[in-house]
């Protein structure tokens, strides 16, 4: 009996230790929130790596609070290109160490624009580019609701590029403006010659975007030597492997930049 009780005691101590160790290892969890024009994406990062991701059709404050409490979140960062959400910001400020581009944040990028003039998403993408390629000229192309072009020079200067309609926006505008053309779920066209209305739309829209991107890349490469090109965003997968000498990364490159924002400001507080 004494041996059995001793074993139970050892097991209880071990379980308590493992539980406390789990809590301790989660004490530096970073909560990253990307509020876009279409979806709300949330990620948990730890030691510069993604631990878990969530995706919502719209912002659900109660779910954000649950995530903070469940995963013992310490730090948070927000990118918001939609309407301001003061309730969310208050919660993040009260329950975490909160970082956003609207605050007086330190960033290792020289920008001719004030932080309020540039979208949070574009700043986060540039920070991700700096994090991954600190000494290179980098063009970041984000294929989201809109397609954005942003540059980081080898001297870590930010230069904003263009904004054009994204894949779904182009398809919707055609459908809205032409009675007999319905919205489609596009695929990469097999040919420049159409076999039906759907393939005709795919040629015009998908290949149109590809040629637009290739044209911008060529123009920027004529100005910036040894330019690295990163293509990201939810719609980037349709062109993955189709554009030479580019880096297709995960659709949530913004998270990488938000996590860098937290870690850089912690180190330089």
Question: If you had to describe this structure to a student in words, what would you say it looks like?
Answer:
- This protein has 269 residues and is α/β, with parallel strands linked by helices.
- It has 2 domains: 100 residues, ATPase, nucleotide binding domain (Nucleotidyltransferase, domain 5, 2-Layer Sandwich); 157 residues, Nucleotidyltransferase, domain 5, CATH 3.30.420.40.
- The protein has 7 helices and 10 strands.
- β7 and β8 form a beta hairpin.
- α2 runs parallel beside α3 and α4 crosses α7.
- The protein is globular.
Helix content: 40-55%
Q: Summarize the main sheet.
A: 5 strands, mixed
Structural class based on helices, strands and sheet pairing = alpha/beta
CATH architecture of the largest domain: 2-Layer Sandwich
Tertiary shape: globular
Just give the CATH class of the largest domain: Alpha Beta
Amino- and carboxy-terminal Cα gap: 56 Å
What's the layout of helices and strands?
Blueprint: H1 2-25, E1 29-35, E2 40-46, E3 49-56, H2 61-70, E4 73-80, H3 86-95, E5 97-100, H4 120-132, E6 138-143, E7 146-152, E8 158-165, H5 167-177, H6 197-221, E9 228-232, E10 247-248, H7 253-267
Parallel strand pairs: 1-4, 4-5, 6-9, 9-10
Antiparallel strand pairs: 1-2, 2-3, 6-7, 7-8
